[in-house]
Write a structure and sequence with these properties.
Elements lengths: L6 E5 L6 H13 L4 E2 L7 H11 L16 E7 L20 E6 L12 E4 L5 H11 L6 H15 L9 H12 L4 H8 L5 H12 L2 E5 L2 E10 L6 H11 L4 E8 L2 E8 L6 H6 L4 E2 L3 E6 L4 H15 L6 H4 L6 E3 L4 H11 L3 E5 L8 E6 H9 L24 H11 L3 E6 L2 E7 H9 L3 H8 L3 H4 L2 E4 L1 H7 L2 H17 L3 E4 L1 H7 L7 E5 L3 H11 L3 E5 L4 E5 L5 E6 L1 E4 L8 E4 L2 H6 L9 E3 L7 E4 L3 H6 L2 E2 L6 H4 L3 H12 L2 E2 L1 H12 L8 H12 L5 H9 L14 H18 L9 H10 L4 H10 L4 H24 L4 H8 L4 H10 L3 H12 L10 H6 L6 H15 L6 H11 L10
Helix pairs in contact: 1-3, 1-4, 3-5, 4-5, 4-6, 7-8, 12-13, 25-27, 25-28, 27-30, 29-30, 29-34, 30-34, 34-35
Length: about 900
Amino acid sequence: MSNPNGITVITTHLNADFDALASMLAAQKLYPDALVVFPGSQEKNLRNFFITSMAYLFNMADIKHIDFSAINRLILVDTRQPSRIGKFAELLNHPDIEIHIYDHHPPMPNDIKGHIEFSRISGATVTLLIEIIREKQIDVSADEATIMCLGLYEDTGSFTFPSTTEQDFLAAAFLLSRGANLNMVSSMTAREISPEQVGLLNDMIQSATRYTIKGTEVVVTSIITEHYVPDFAFLVHKMIKMENLNAIFAIASMENKIHIVARSRIPEVDVGTILSQMGGGGHNFAASATIKDHTLAQTDQRLLEILYQTIRPRRLARDIMSSPAISTGADTSCKEASGLLTRYNINALLINGGPDARESLLGYITRQVLEKALYHHLDDVPVREYMTTDIAWVSPDADISEIQQKVIDNKQRILPVVENGTIKGVVSRTDLLNLIVRQSSRDLAAAAGNFQDIIHARTRNILNFMIERFSKRMMDLLRGIGVVAREMGIEAYVVGGFVRDLFLYRPNEDMDVVVEGNGIAFAKQYAALNSARVHTHEHFGTAVIILPDHLKIDIASARMEYYKFPTALPIVEMSSIKQDLFRRDFTINTLAIQLNPEKFGTLIDFFSAQKDIKEKAIRVIHNLSFVEDPTRAFRAIKFEQRFGFNMGRLTVGLIENAIKMDFFSKLSGKRVFNEIKQILDEENPVPAIGRLNDFQLLRVIHPNLQLGPDKITLLNSVKNVISWHDLLFLEESVMKWAVYLLAILRGYDSKISEDIFNRLELAPRMKTILGKERYAAEKTLYWLERSMPVLNSELCDLLMGIRTELKLYMMAATRQESVKRAISHYFVKLRYIKPSVTGEDLKQMGFPPGPMFKDILLAIRNEKLNEKLKTRDDELVFISRHFSGDNTSDVG
């Protein structure tokens, strides 16, 4: 900066309220060296409170004493409107001044742009700052917590305003845990109304005019006073409660300005958007504006024009629903259900479970699901097997916002309208979209809101989060991929588990990149520029880039897969990123981050993956997911146990259906083995193995394969033994999955074992390990358990020819602690014991090279194992006594 020794100023909006004060104090916790400066006057109640109590907590300075040329950083809280920060607006045109913004108001076209912005809709700005304070673990005193709580209670109406969010409650809980004084908060927010205010409030009520605009009642009132009324917003709040109003616009002519304060309890009247057209702003439910050079009449007329243009029609579910709703029974076949969709020209069908089609709502099924079912020759399967059972519904009096929210949150094509247990009708996404499209372009932007998310992806920039989580090496790699993509005129994305684990705070360097174009051509171009090697797979349009440091990047062309029949390998076609993500297994694996420079760091979420990650839910993307690829059931269990998530009810039901329909029997053994192996290679696979057993998925391998309590105990023992072995830090590779598989196979005879090997299409080497060598190891274990204690030399003779996986299996399988200790003693010490003398020593002692060398060295090793020989001299004496040589005296 041009002024490295400059000052940091924290400020807020004119006529600061308690939330502004609380936010400035919270910001001071983040910028402890900053000065807190009001841009102008404060509300009267705030000023009295501040003067008489808590001023000592602030690094406060008067704006009159601030050298504006010394400011090099400006912190704005509870506003980002240049018209609301008074004299500080002069600093906005100085490029060398760093601006940080913390605000909870909706974005406006003329918002100040900050170098750092932390903005989100919430009940109070202080809520956002408290979240940061908690993350940074900054200490907050009881007095500080009280002031912050005061701002929080004031701006949320003690948590009664519609703008209140879950985060506001969490912030209050945190402040209470830090000693916030609710008695003081209550006394400060419970204002007494003065006689003058009673008179003004009466004037407001008497002058109120009620307008019915597009089905919504709006109250407009106006007053004239010769002096400024600092508590005008408080009077508006009183009036809306006294008169039980849904929306009010109060206009006051004070001194030489017009002030408007607006409050709304309904989404049809977005007061923030309305007053932004008059130079003001705020939230959907609370806003204000100050107008100069206009009369009261002019302001009133302009306001009415905007209201008629902007207010959305208030429509209820009963007004837009289709009735009667088309439904069918749960036992209807997929083919019959498809016929109903065609007959009635609809795209989704309600499923009921009773004789009265209007009652017993069970779920719904879509045309897309039915078409896939028929494609896979599931014509006669009942729709209950593939219907969506997690279904939301609304009452006939539900308004558009509730309908829209239910459709978005539940991703439903149709929304039943239910009254007293009876289905009155149904609202489809088409019904809702048609209603929105019929409105003006301004109404569309306001009314649609997040409804766009049904069609488009949720996006947000997570660049700062990436910088925080990724190494510089990884960031440079991602940026480099984006640069090459831009030069080739294509879009590149990093996708899947790499992005999922970013949000789960789990390390993952398995990078999957998808390009909307020719993935192989991209891989070759990138490799050529970065001295890397490439392996291509032309059939799938994929490639693997191997960098000089051996890091691998998987490259794929954005593709859409379809399956010729259930369990088949996919047929691949070129497609877009959305279609590419749609082919994936679960919603949590559908996140993508754009890598092209102009959009670098933009997160794309088509399928509510962030929501499912937050809710710790494993959900399929479509209802025939396990029909097309039953191996996804194994992956669902793997992810569920790895992350501590839970499968959604629908996902569980679809897995059970795939098992019942016997789709797993059509899978190749190699595919089943690969999935089982991946599960067994997890850090702790035991819970996942238990879930496989619960779903009876082990019977996919063999009908007799199941786990009882003893087998679960054995598997837990394997986990403990492997953990113990890992702590030895031995330089030997161990197939951990094989140890678990050995435990699963324990107790099964050669016939069943051979059947399992054949079902999994195991390689001959693995058949030998899991079969013949397992039987030999079990025989050795049986002998040890009956013969303990044994000499160390005998133990080594028994164990040295057994591979490590089998020795670990023996340790886990034995119920005798002495046997387990003996095998562990072999691992840790015995196997490293060797004679000190060598063959060269034996030559010098006069022994001719030959079989005797082996006998002598073996005898010495056994004596050392049995702790009868300690030193090299002991070994030489032993040789002299037990073996004859030509010259034993020359070696010492």
